[in-house]
Amino acid sequence: MWVRTSQLQQIDSALETGRAEDIDTLIADILRSGASELSTSNACAVCRRELVRSELQVGVVVFACPGEHGAWLSPDTLAALRGLGRGHATALPKRSRIKLLSALLAASLAALAVGLALGVTSWRPMPMEERRYLQELVTVLSDGATHRRDVEGVLQSKSERATYGVVYQIYRERQGDVLARLKGLDVPARLRRVHDRIIVATERQIEFYRAFTEARMRDDSVDLARMLGHPALRSSSYELHAAWDLIRGIYPGLDAATSQTIEGALCQFDVV
């Protein structure tokens, strides 16, 4: 049975104010509206995204949309809710009922954080192709940030000069793979300018670490602070900041969690 997020929000409001009668009425309305839909699905009824399975109190299972559209309730969940709605002696105690409904609400509304589900607001969801692109972008940038930190850590350490060259070649190969993965992403039309800037930033970053490596092999007193003015580094950082500015312009209502995830990925990928 499909339950809309708005219905869960109504239950949440009743929970906050302790209106037990309203909770019972809302449960009854949900059951009545979905009485014939006893099977569950592995996709959201609205956006068709794959659902997140969560096991709640007393073994109750809910399958929630990461985009906050609602949740499919399993037959066990449906039976539990029916039990909660009954006022006779076999119903769960009030404290257990409140606890279960709170868990159900949390699983559906907080599922956005699972698997990096990206969206703007409940009322203006991000198009699926843009959501998918940003998910993939963050994953690729995370790998790139790891490679960047690895090579930088060695370049900042005291090592044999030949070691710097070997480590850069490893970095160059791995970051070249990151660049290839970026170029292979399916980019939505209105995010093309964002993507192009990130591609340029990645290319410039590879150039910068080559220059840093060569400088370090010539003079082991050279450190990152002395390289901060390098044109390739300045260009890479500029392109990443410009990409973030474009994203903020495209999604002015971006929620805080999603905004922090994307901005964090770009910042970690950046050298400075």
Set down the secondary structure blueprint.
Layout: E1 2-4, H1 5-17, H2 20-33, E2 52-55, E3 61-64, E4 70-73, H3 75-85, H4 94-109, H5 128-155, H6 161-183, H7 192-218, H8 224-227, H9 231-250, H10 256-269
Antiparallel strand pairs: 1-4, 2-3, 3-4
Helix pairs in contact: 1-2, 1-4, 2-3, 5-6, 5-10, 6-7, 7-9, 9-10
Structure, described:
With 272 residues, the chain is mainly alpha-helical. Helix content is 62%, strand content 6%. The chain has ten helices and four strands. The protein has a four-stranded antiparallel β-sheet with strand order 1-4-3-2. The longest helix is centred in the middle third of the chain and has 28 residues, at 128-155. Residues 35-40, 56-60, 87-92 and 107-123 have low confidence and may be disordered.
Considering the chains and any ligands shown, give keywords for the structure.
272 residues; mainly alpha; 4-stranded antiparallel beta sheet
Name the assembly state. Answer: single chain
**What's the gyration radius in Å?**
25 Å
* N to C succession of SSEs: EHHEEEHHHHHHHH
Helix count?
10
Low-confidence sequence ranges: 35-40, 56-60, 87-92, 107-123
Mean pLDDT: 76
Number-wise, the strands total 4
Per DSSP, what share of the residues sits in E-state strands of 2 or more residues? 5-15%
Order of strands in the sheet with the most strands?
1-4-3-2
Structural class: mainly alpha
The end-to-end distance, rounded to whole angstroms, is 50 Å
What characteristic shape results from the CA principal axes? Answer: elongated
The largest β sheet comes out as: 4 strands, antiparallel
Helix fraction by DSSP (H/I, runs of at least 4): 55-70%
